[in-house]
Give the backbone structure.
Amino acid sequence: MTISSSSVPRPQAAEAALPILLRQLRLARIRSHWQSIASQAETEGWSHSQFLYSLCEQEVEQRQQARQQRLLRSAQLPWSKALADYDHSGRIEAGPWQELEGLTHQSEWLQRGENVLLFGPSGVGKTHLAIGIVLAQIALDQPCRFYPATALVQELQKARADYNLPQALERLDRYPLLLIDDIGYVRRDEQESSVLFELICHRYERRSLLITANQPFTAWDEIFPSSSMTVAAVDRLVHHCHIVEIGGDSHRRADAERRAGRRRKEQG
């Protein structure tokens, strides 16, 4: 394509019109930085292609940062804790820990619809680990969503009452990874358990679930109203799954005991 020289405005007119064009093209980063980059290019003798590359690189970087912020807001995490900040010594064996670390470095397992189940007593850091996995996937540009299990069930129950459950399940498909925290707090109620079961069936081999649970599978009859539904749910979850068991004492209890010990020393 050849542009006629007569159609190109004079330098002053072009400089005045350029911000308007960049706004129309929604190139916010270039609009705010092109003058400083142009000065640098002139000082350092860049070629036209080097100047254009630098402008485009700035725009891509800004858009990626903006997308990361959108993904973080959309995930609705209660706090931010990285997997690297978790002290797994004495809690998780070396093999499962390496498996968890491997999940944070790539997203192919999400494309295969694989699940992650984190088991352990209250206070051992299951939610910390789950959030660490979610943050790692967001860094890899994967949309994720956090839900306390009871809140998710209530949302799906409302959707069913409004005859919108299929649409609600499809909306959750926008998240390749759905974190369901503390599944054991779901009551053994047919309405609650049935929507949870439908979610598990809907995402089976299509989208991934990351679930934390205090109870082992043998106690999941307390979640679902029948043993047949329990078996069917567990069967779908574990078919393509990474299962990690976490041991040790409660972090919260240990922290409380340390604080109490410090107070006793200060008072003594």
